[in-house]
Every structure is written in structure tokens, then in C-alpha cells.
Automatic annotation (TrEMBL):
Entry-linked Pfam families: FAD_binding_4
Lineage start: Bacteria, Pseudomonadati, Pseudomonadota, Alphaproteobacteria, Sphingomonadales
GO molecular function, one term: FAD binding
Keyword line: FAD, Flavoprotein
Protein's UniProt name: FAD-binding oxidoreductase
Protein source organism: Qipengyuania aquimaris
Domain FAD-binding PCMH-type span(s) in chain numbering: 12-180
Length: 436
């Protein structure tokens, strides 16, 4: 048992917390103090409070990172929940395999990918991470052990996928990888001048391109409102396999001063970023690392937002709501002059996520980072919340640090079904904020 710093990626709540770091799966529950609630904590890439617990015990999974089995012929991998997606890729890429879908950082644990049912640039074809899980090993705090799958203990499986670590301790995960013909992608970059053009390009790209994503200038007004850069890609077929190298990651050595994070600097960044991306229009070949994980090349990039930390606001609005809610949200953000350095806009496909609390649904998702400006930022979020709620949208718990309970309940209609599967010995700051 130790006391040390356990932080959120948004760096909004930095303090020392009680933690245990078991070396083996069999020790996960044996080393815990009695009658203390706990939460599993991986690599700390959740932006908000889903993996922190005031006055509780954080079970750190950093040593539970072993490969249990990998079949290079079938692409079936089983590994302990604490292994990073980065380590998985370094093993499987040379054999011609890749993750079925991947979030925007490879420094995420396998267990965290399951608990948040992460999604990637290929959601319109692959769905979420949970769609590719073959089995889950789950330890409940009452001492019971389960092996879950879509066909065995299906209710508890659905609650665990996207269940934010609240149904038990995920000890291992078995997934089906996907075969790829290269570790490089053929990428096409296009510019769009407004939201109408974005939706046209996105619709035209869904069948012919496995991976799609766009950056959007969230401070654009008038004719520039909704302009951005659209990237779409497929795997190359050259049979060249080169795994990434984490030794090339550069560290952010200091916190950025708060005074440089203002409307003027964000606007200047957006202009400069668009200009740089315009030079890349057309087709080019790129390795998977910079395409899927552009920010992973800068270690501790969250320090760029200064000592007060930052929020990420990610929502999804349903397809039937169309363009209007996105336009309204961008209007509120531009009027507040609190735009994001990197705003991401993407469409989700129709494949239903397997988890009771999975975030993606068919529609469009907007994700933005906001430096913490206190009440000004929170007031802006309330205005964005109203837009999301009016159309029946939802926010992403893995990115959230302040969502109102009413918005969560409205956006996740299967919450009562989920609560029946909660592990009574597990809690989190997010759960206390939302469920009580």
C-alpha cells in the first residue's frame, strides 16, 4: 500500500491518493484493506474522474501487463488488462496484425479500452472495441471469478464493456485482431469550407475508406464557420511491416504559462494549423503511428494547457438531428472565444455498440479541448449541454469531468439495467457524481 500522485489526464484534480500495485492477477484482491471501496487505474489517460476515487483505493494495473497467448495465424490475442495498446502493437504488427479499432492514444491499457468501449477512425465500418472482444476475465470483490463473452454471462458482459470499471476488476481480455497488408496507410487529405461540405465528404467516404476523421476550425465565423480538413485512408498493400518505436517520444518539459492560453492564441493556432494542413492536400503514404496517434509523439502534452488543467468536451448527436446541433455548438464556442486548439469532427456508423453504457451511436461526434477558465468554461458547457440534450445526444464519460447527472441519465437510457450489475465494492468519483 502506498500514497502517491494519481492524476487525471485533464490535470484538474491533482492530489496524492491511496494505491496498491499488485504484481500478479491472483494478488489483486488479497492486498486490499477491508471495507474500502476501490477502482482500477491504468495509465491515467481518462480525462476526468472515471478512474479516481476520493478516500478509496486505486488498484494500479501497471505490472499486470503480460501477454498470455497470441496466435500469429489466427490473430487471436489474450493479455492481462494492464498491458498498453502500444505494447500489443509492437508485438503483433510485425506479424501482419493490427488492433480492430484504436483510440487516439496508444498509451491506453487493454482493460481501459474495454471499460470505456473505445472507438476510432473506423467506427463506420468496425464499430467499437467491444465488438471485437472474444472473452473477458472478471474478478468481483466478493471473490467470484467470471469468464465473460457475448454468449456466456451475456448480461454481465454487456455491463462490463463500456461499464467504466464498475462491474469488477478486469483481469484479462481476449480480442480478435485484424489482418493488414502493411503498417503504412494511403491517406487522402481534403479541405472543406463549411459543415455542408463536411457531411457530403463524410457520406461519400464511408464505403470506400476504412478510416475517416476531420479537424475543424471551431472559431471560424461567417463564411469560414465550419471549415476544416478531412482525412480518409486505407491500408497500403506493400507487405511492409514496421512497428512504432516509443523511444522517439519527446517529453513536454514544462507547463505552459496560463496567460498564453487565450482567444487570440487559439485563433492564431487554428489559422496556422489549417495553413500547414493545406500544404498536405492530396494523397500521401504514412506510417500508422502519426496517423492514428499524432499527439503520442509528445509525452505529457497535457501540460500545454497550463497549471489549471483542461477539459475535453466530447458529444455525439444522432444522425436524424442533422447539421443543426453541430452548427449551434460551434456558434456558441466562437461567441465565447474559448475555442479548442484541436477540434475533431467525425461521423459514427450504424453498428450498435455491445455495452449498456457504450458512448457511440449513429450520428456525428464533436470533441474539443478547453483550457480551464473556471466559471466561463463551465457556463459555456452548460449551453452546449442544452443543445446536446435537446436532440437526444450524449457525452463521453471517458472524457468527462463535470457532466450533470440528468444529462447522463437522458443520454444513456439503459442505466438502470446497468446498475443491477454493479460491483458493490467498486466505486469512482464519476459514479458518486452521477449515480448518487
Amino acid at each position: 500500500m502506498s500514497v502517491g500522485a494519481i492524476d487525471t489526464w485533464g490535470r484538474l484534480d491533482r492530489r496524492d491518493r491511496l494505491a496498491v500495485t499488485p504484481r500478479f492477477r491472483r494478488d489483486m484482491l488479497q492486498s486490499l484493506p477491508p471495507r474500502r471501496p476501490l477502482i482500477a487505474h491504468g495509465l491515467g489517460r481518462s480525462y476526468g474522474d472515471v478512474a479516481t476515487l476520493e478516500d478509496g483505493v486505486h488498484l494500479r494495473t501497471e505490472d499486470l501487463d503480460r501477454i498470455m497467448s497470441f496466435d500469429p495465424q489466427t490473430g487471436v490475442l489474450r493479455a492481462e488488462a494492464g498491458i498498453s495498446l502500444s505494447a500489443v502493437l509492437q508485438l503483433v504488427v510485425p506479424h501482419g496484425w493490427f488492433l480492430p479499432t484504436t483510440p487516439g492514444s496508444r498509451f491506453v491499457t487493454l482493460g481501459g479500452a474495454v471499460a470505456n468501449d473505445v472507438h476510432g477512425k473506423n467506427h463506420h465500418q468496425a464499430g467499437t472495441f467491444g465488438s471485437h472482444i472474444r472473452a473477458i476475465g472478471l474478478s468481483r470483490t466478493n471473490g467470484k471469478e467470471y469468464v465473460l463473452s457475448p454468449d456466456h454471462e451475456a448480461g454481465l458482459f454487456a455491463a462490463t464493456v463500456g461499464g467504466l470499471g464498475l462491474t469488477g476488476l478486469i483481469s484479462w481480455v481476449e480480442i480478435q485482431l485484424v489482418a493488414v497488408d502493411s503498417s503504412f496507410l494511403d491517406v487522402e487529405t481534403l479541405a472543406f469550407e463549411n459543415l455542408e461540405e463536411f457531411f457530403e465528404i463524410a457520406a461519400a467516404s464511408e464505403e470506400g475508406f476504412e478510416h475517416t476523421v476531420s479537424w475543424i476550425d471551431c472559431l471560424g465565423k461567417g463564411e469560414r464557420a465550419g471549415r476544416g480538413i478531412f482525412s480518409r485512408a486505407n491500408w497500403c498493400t506493400d507487405k511492409k511491416y514496421q512497428a512504432h518505436d516509443d523511444r522517439s517520444v519527446m517529453l513536454m518539459p514544462f507547463e505552459a504559462p496560463s496567460f498564453i492560453l487565450n482567444g487570440v492564441s487559439v485563433k492564431a493556432f487554428n489559422i496556422a494549423y489549417r495553413a500547414a494542413q493545406m500544404l498536405k492536400l492530396g494523397r500521401h503514404r504514412t506510417h500508422y503511428a502519426p496517423f492514428f496517434y499524432p499527439l503520442d509523439g509528445i509525452g505529457s502534452w497535457n501540460k500545454l494547457y497550463g497549471p489549471k488543467g483542461f477539459y475535453q468536451y466530447q458529444c455525439v448527436t444522432p444522425k436524424e438531428a442533422g447539421i443543426t446541433p453541430v452548427r449551434r455548438m460551434l456558434g456558441e464556442i466562437a461567441a465565447a472565444r474559448q475555442g479548442s486548439f484541436l477540434a475533431v469532427l467525425k461521423t459514427f456508423g450504424s453498428k450498435v455498440s455491445p455495452g449498456l453504457l457504450s458512448f457511440p451511436r449513429e450520428g456525428v461526434t464533436l470533441a474539443l479541448d478547453f483550457p480551464n477558465k473556471g466559471k466561463r468554461t463551465l457556463d459555456l458547457f452548460e449551453r452546449l449541454d442544452r443543445i446536446v440534450a435537446e436532440v437526444g445526444g450524449r457525452l463521453y464519460p471517458a472524457k468527462d469531468a463535470r457532466m450533470p447527472p440528468a444529462l447522463f441519465r437522458a443520454g444513456y437510457p439503459r442505466i438502470d439495467e446497468f446498475l443491477a450489475y454493479r460491483d458493490e465494492g467498486i466505486d469512482s468519483d464519476f459514479a458518486r457524481r452521477i449515480f448518487t
